[in-house]
């Protein structure tokens, strides 16, 4: 994964969609996150060369469920890419459905401002949540991982609250990548504990694992690893 300078229009489109569909910025609700993690792990593989990463995000949500979001993290890929920052720009909609379910549909543009060459790519995803405890996500890109080939990702997950401050989370994901992408299909698992020790702060400890196909495609960035992170939400 990797990307390049973000043109002004990349930011304007999600914000324009939000303003036109939500009834104006005056109805907006703003939220955000900031985190420090020992390893930025995305779909089972390290995006920070197994090193620490700083992350932050900002989300603007309208009354009708439309939202615009920007999220960034420090990254470290192969030295020749010169990629040091990831910026994800998202436009989406989320809302409640019958049967204690909720749906989130979004388009994400992945950008790497400092990278050499065009490493940007776009993905569309949908996440269905039931009772806020279980979720199923499906995402698709025609240029997955900026490879020029298609990729489809699916994940099933669950979270269980043990008490008011401690919860457990687990998920299993499968990434189907076209043969001309240069990568093989792979599976990953993750299991973690989240401790809300002092509002608005949380401490997360997550165990990640991938199959042999991921290790063949991504080398040392895949496999088994433990990630610890401190996150604040506002």
- Beta-strand percentage? over 45%
Order of helices and strands: HEEEEEEEEEEEEEHE
Largest sheet: 12 strands, antiparallel, barrel
Number of domains: 1
Q: Distance between the terminal alpha carbons, to the nearest Å?
A: 28 Å
* Number of helices in the DSSP assignment: 2
Helical content stands at under 10%
Mean pLDDT, rounded to whole units?
91
* Overall outline: globular
CATH-assigned homologous superfamily: monomeric porin ompg
Structural class: mainly beta
Radius of gyration: 18 Å
CATH architecture field: Beta Barrel
Number of strands: 14
According to CATH, the fold-level topology is Porin
CATH class: Mainly Beta
How do the helices and strands line up, and which of them pair or pack?
Layout: H1 8-22, E1 29-37, E2 41-42, E3 45-46, E4 53-61, E5 66-74, E6 85-97, E7 101-111, E8 121-130, E9 134-141, E10 151-161, E11 166-177, E12 186-198, E13 201-210, H2 212-218, E14 225-233
Antiparallel strand pairs: 1-4, 1-14, 2-3, 4-5, 5-6, 6-7, 7-8, 8-9, 9-10, 10-11, 11-12, 12-13, 13-14
């Amino acid at each position: 994964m990797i990307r390049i300078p973000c043109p002004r229009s990349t930011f304007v489109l999600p914000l324009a969609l939000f303003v036109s569909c939500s009834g104006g910025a005056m109805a907006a609700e703003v939220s955000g996150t900031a985190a420090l993690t020992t390893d930025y792990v995305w779909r089972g593989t390290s995006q920070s060369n197994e090193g620490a990463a700083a992350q932050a995000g900002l989300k603007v949500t309208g009354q009708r469920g439309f939202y615009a979001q920007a999220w960034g993290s420090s990254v470290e890929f192969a030295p020749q890419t010169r990629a040091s920052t990831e910026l994800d720009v998202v436009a989406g909609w989320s809302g409640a459905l019958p049967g204690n379910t909720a749906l989130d549909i979004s388009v994400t543009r992945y950008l790497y401002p400092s990278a050499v060459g065009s490493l940007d790519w776009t993905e569309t995803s949908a996440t269905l949540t039931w009772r806020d405890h279980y979720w199923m996500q499906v995402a698709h890109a025609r240029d997955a991982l900026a490879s020029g080939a298609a990729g489809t990702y699916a994940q099933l997950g669950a979270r269980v609250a043990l008490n008011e401050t401690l919860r457990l989370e687990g998920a299993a994901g499968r990434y189907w990548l076209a043969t001309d992408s240069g990568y093989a299909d792979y599976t990953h698992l993750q299991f973690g504990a989240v401790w809300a020790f002092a509002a608005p702060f949380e401490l997360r400890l997550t165990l990640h694992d991938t199959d042999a196909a991921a290790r063949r495609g991504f080398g040392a960035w895949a496999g088994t690893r433990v990630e610890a992170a401190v996150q604040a939400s506002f």
